[in-house]
Specification:
The longest helix is centred in the middle third of the chain and has 12 residues. A hairpin with a 5-residue loop joins strand 4 and strand 5. 24% of the residues lie in helices and 36% in strands. Helix 1 packs antiparallel against helix 2. A four-stranded antiparallel sheet has the order 4-5-3-6, covered by helices on one side. The protein is of the alpha+beta class.
């Protein structure tokens, strides 16, 4: 899979990166955000757009020790690299989102 910048541009492909066979069930997308009101709802809306099968109740959430950051883990059925790229772009457009993995 290619590395994707915050603007959604592909930086390059890693030669030894594992190949993903699509569709890929239980694909985990991790999102790190600032602890801000309403950010969870914004993120869930992005997932509803790009991965409507995702169960919003099956999301795991962890707060940082000082409470400034929150990390979320979402499980989706990844359909294509284009889907993952579009999801990444939409998630990074949320102001409180700091990282998508």
């Amino acid at each position: 899979m290619a590395l994707i910048t915050k603007d959604g541009d592909q930086v390059g492909k890693q030669p030894d990166a594992p190949k993903i066979e699509f569709p890929c069930e239980n694909y985990v997308v991790k999102v790190v955000t600032m602890d801000a009101e309403g950010v969870h709802a914004e993120i869930v809306e992005c997932f509803k757009t790009h991965a409507p099968e995702m169960d919003p109740k099956a999301v795991s959430m962890n707060r940082s020790s000082k409470g400034r950051f929150v990390s979320y883990s979402f499980r989706i059925i990844a359909q294509s690299e284009a889907q993952l790229s579009a999801l990444h772009t939409d998630l990074m457009s949320v102001n409180a989102v700091k990282m998508v993995m």
